[in-house]
Amino acid sequence: MDVSVLGFGGSEIGYEGASLRTVETLLGAALDAGLNVIDTAECYFESERLIGRAVADRRSEFHLFTKCGHDQGLGLPEWTPRLIEASVERSLRLLRTDRVDLLQLHSCDEAVLRKGEVIEAVERLKSAGKTRFVGYSGDGEDALTAVRTGRFDALQISLSVADQEAIDLVLPEARVHGLGVIAKRPVANAAWRTGKRPADAYHHAYWERLAKLDFPFLKAPLPESLGTALRFALAVPGVSTAIVGTKTPGRFGENAALLGPGPLAADEYEAIRARWKAVAPKGWTGQV
């Protein structure tokens, strides 16, 4: 699968209640500019429905990823084959397609993975032509367990200047198994952008980590610091694409422009890694 270095993450349009017109404008401009990865999930509220209505007529222009495993109104037990099959059928209807390019188990834990039933369920869906590839989306030891099964084609994992656990814990194993790697939250939710603690508690862990890490580049103007952060995530060996979520039309173009300076220099990358290793305690695990 040939993927663009930047992909679109569909959580914000669902969680933050974007309008259909906004999503049509946002995704239309992104596809026109060369983005070819759209990632969503069954639990992102209206995200799948919005994506289906906005760009189903351009389905041949992008790779479509979704996730499964959580019960969203189906009344079925989570992490069961029956739920996964029903959930994926609903996802396909909402996305207005007969198959996705990547179907991912959405952050299930080691115990669920070791039982094997959910992996078998997504493999059956692959055999039935409902997806081209299967993947795992998650972090930490759970992600490592998923990779070590040898049964997934791709891994989506938290990876940023404030979330580097995966670089040493999971990604070396992912390379051994030949998995495509999708970096999620590659700019750590831009938790430093206002210079103040974010109002949304979802961003607090990254805000607190970055305050302790105190990277010099964070003191640069915001476009420059965002660019450094994004280029860091893309410089991690094995990363194929970085998923950035937004509900703001035009933001993809802004994000693409952040890559203008080119790949992050090796010394900049190593300085960020060295600071993490010097400061980060074991408790700074991947953020699910």
Identify the CATH architecture: Alpha-Beta Barrel
From the structure provided, what is the oligomeric state, counting identical versus distinct chains? single chain
Low-pLDDT segments: none
The tally of strands reads 8
How many individual domains? 1
User: How are helices and strands ordered from N to C?
Assistant: EHHEHEHEHHEHEHHEHHEHH
Secondary structure category:
alpha/beta
- Biggest sheet record: 8 strands, parallel, barrel
User: What is the top-level CATH class?
Assistant: Alpha Beta
Q: What features would you describe in this structure?
A:
With 288 residues, this protein is α/β, with parallel strands linked by helices. The chain has one domain (6-279): NADP-dependent oxidoreductase domain (TIM Barrel, Alpha-Beta Barrel), CATH 3.20.20. 43% of the residues lie in helices and 15% in strands. Strands 1-2-3-4-5-6-7-8 form an eight-stranded parallel barrel, surrounded by five helices. The two termini are 25 Å apart. The relative contact order is 0.14. The model has no long low-confidence stretch (mean pLDDT 96).
Please sum up the structure shown.
This protein has helices spanning 11-15, 20-32, 47-55, 81-95, 110-115, 117-127, 140-148, 165-169, 171-176, 204-213, 222-235, 251-258, 266-279; strands at 6-9, 37-39, 63-68, 100-106, 131-137, 154-158, 180-184, 239-245.
